[in-house]
Design brief:
single chain; about 425 residues; alpha/beta; Rossmann fold; 13 helices; globular; disordered N terminus; binds 2-acetamido-2-deoxy-beta-D-glucopyranose; AB_hydrolase_1
Length: about 425
């Protein structure tokens, strides 16, 4: 995936007033034709936080980062409160983002899924290629159903720009970027992908938090939301963010991240990835090693702003579908069926196969997401069986995608 960078053919002469659009690759899958490009995206927000006033600038070394993680999660720690309380700052600017666009090989697209990957992920999360099968690729399943998919390395990740990782690369600014991208798609000026008037926001983990916050400032950006790896009950306990063991990326994987500053971090090894993302044995060894070998870095600004998006209230009335693995570690403390809720919001069954499994209507922690979308007229949940946080890397991925496609069809978007 990273090798695509080496295929980059620079445009010979760029007209300076135009955004930089550089197409680098065309790829043909089973159901989808994909192409990649860079585009400069302008956005502005007044809602970033002056995190540097709380956690300082990039940590000088890994031992300092470990100590500050302990301080943050320590008994009686006030760091989280200080972060929530930090002064708001304005951030604006145009940053280069890397995109992958996939469309059905035949026929016109019904609409577009605009995806938002999570921490430790990148655009590739939505087009996972495993074992010569299209079945782990969301983009392939979408194309099979007649939909296009637009994925991007979010700001700070992979091939996209890497500005100040503490005060600029935070969820409020990324929300503004996502709004700006959707707006460009609706007016038809994002690279050469054309114009769409049906756009569904799809998120995973941090990307789902981003969308939950986004609809409070821009409810018309997306005609529906698909939130995967998400609940409104993320754990602060041992299976939460602390278990990612955020490690300075250039220390953990110097060959991949040597140019990242020290506020760019990543999980340090494959077994930490298993803890955060996988349910044994419902994945293949290739899947786990592919995840680890292609994963993305994230910033301390992202890690410390992730919950800010959920503080915002919204009146979003459009359809919302929450799809989370039964054993999701960070969002369910590895057991979504442990809940104090006594009735299920609206869990969706298997509409294709007429399943009557009793788990269908069992309340789960996914139902806590209903609090975030009190006005949605079509809110449903689906617990993916025998699956953890990294749904797309499990053998159940195709089943999860089928549920998403079915939801979209039934919702008449
Ligand atoms: C939050 O800010 C208020 C007003 O500046 C201050 O009184 C309070 O002590 C702060 N709380 C924390 C946890 O820093
Ligand atoms: C696709 O859309 C174009 C332009 O709207 C139209 O001319 C063409 O007939 C459509 N093709 C199919 C297969 O629907
Ligand atoms: C993908 O999944 C579908 C549905 O379960 C199955 O019919 C097909 O054989 C799978 N394809 C591959 C290559 O495994
Ligand atoms: C699309 O056009 C609008 C209006 O001119 C502009 O604000 C926006 O930045 C453009 N988007 C891209 C990706 O160039
Ligand atoms: C991965 O390979 C090891 C060694 O063959 C095996 O014990 C383990 O069960 C495999 N994991 C999965 C998920 O299949
Ligand atoms: C998960 O793996 C177990 C053991 O291989 C298998 O019995 C079970 O059917 C799998 N679950 C799903 C939903 O595929
Ligand atoms: C939601 O709607 C209510 C009633 O119309 C309004 O008072 C409130 O400000 C709205 N909230 C948002 C976040 O738009
Ligand atoms: C939230 O998760 C905890 C486990 O971490 C669980 O005990 C609790 O019941 C959950 N809350 C709800 C409302 O589901
Ligand atoms: C479930 O959905 C139905 C119809 O969409 C709605 O009337 C009902 O209130 C929902 N139940 C809950 C608990 O949200
Ligand atoms: C579900 O099963 C029942 C009984 O077997 C059948 O009558 C009904 O048509 C099925 N519904 C669907 C949507 O397949």
């Amino acid at each position: 995936m990273l090798n695509q960078l080496t295929l980059l053919t620079l445009l010979g002469s760029m007209v300076y007033a135009l955004p930089s659009i550089q197409e680098i690759k065309r790829d043909s899958g089973t159901y989808a034709n994909c192409r990649t490009f860079y585009s400069d995206i302008y956005a502005e927000t007044t809602q970033n936080s002056d995190l540097k006033s709380v956690i300082g600038g990039p940590p000088p070394n890994q031992q300092v980062l470990v100590e500050s993680s302990i301080q943050q999660f320590a008994a009686g720690s006030m760091v989280m409160n200080q972060i929530m309380n930090a002064t708001k700052i304005q951030v604006s600017g145009s940053y280069s983002l890397w995109f992958e666009y996939c469309e059905p090989k035949s026929g016109n697209s019904t609409g577009l899924f605009q995806t938002h990957h999570g921490l430790v992920g990148n655009a590739g999360y939505w087009n996972v290629q495993l074992d010569n099968s299209p079945n782990n690729s969301f983009a392939e399943s979408a194309a099979q159903a007649g939909w296009s998919t637009l994925s991007y390395d979010r700001l700070g990740v992979g091939r996209s720009a890497k500005p100040d990782g503490t005060n600029i690369v935070q969820i409020p600014f990324e929300i503004a970027q996502s709004v700006s991208i959707a707006k460009s798609i609706r007016s038809g000026n994002l690279s050469d992908i054309g114009k769409f008037d049906k756009i569904i926001g799809v998120g995973h983990s941090y990307g789902s938090n981003l969308l939950a916050g986004l609809v409070s400032i821009s409810p018309s950006s997306f005609d529906a939301l698909i939130l995967t790896g998400f609940t409104n009950n993320a754990t602060q306990g041992p299976l939460g963010l602390f278990s990612f063991q955020s490690t300075i990326a250039n220390v953990a994987y110097p060959s991949r991240f040597s140019t990242d500053l020290n506020d760019y971090v990543i999980t340090p090894n494959m077994y930490v990835d298993q803890t955060g993302f996988f349910h044994y044995p419902n994945y293949t060894n290739t899947s786990l090693s592919t995840f680890t070998n292609t994963k993305g870095e994230y910033t301390l600004g992202q890690q410390n702003s992730i919950s800010a998006a959920l503080q915002l209230k919204n009146n979003y009335t459009s359809p919302v579908f929450v799809v989370t693995g039964e054993f999701d570690a960070p969002y369910c403390a590895a057991n979504c069926y442990i809940t104090s809720l006594t009735s299920s919001s609206n869990s969706t069954g298997n509409s294709n196969s007429n399943s009557t499994s009793s788990s269908m209507n069992k309340p789960s922690q996914l139902d806590t997401a209903k609090e975030v979308f009190p006005s949605s007229t079509n809110f449903q949940t689906y617990v993916v069986p025998d699956t953890a946080h990294g749904i797309n890397y499990h053998t159940t991925a195709y089943d999860a995608y089928s549920k998403i496609i079915q939801f979209v069809k039934n919702a008449n978007i």
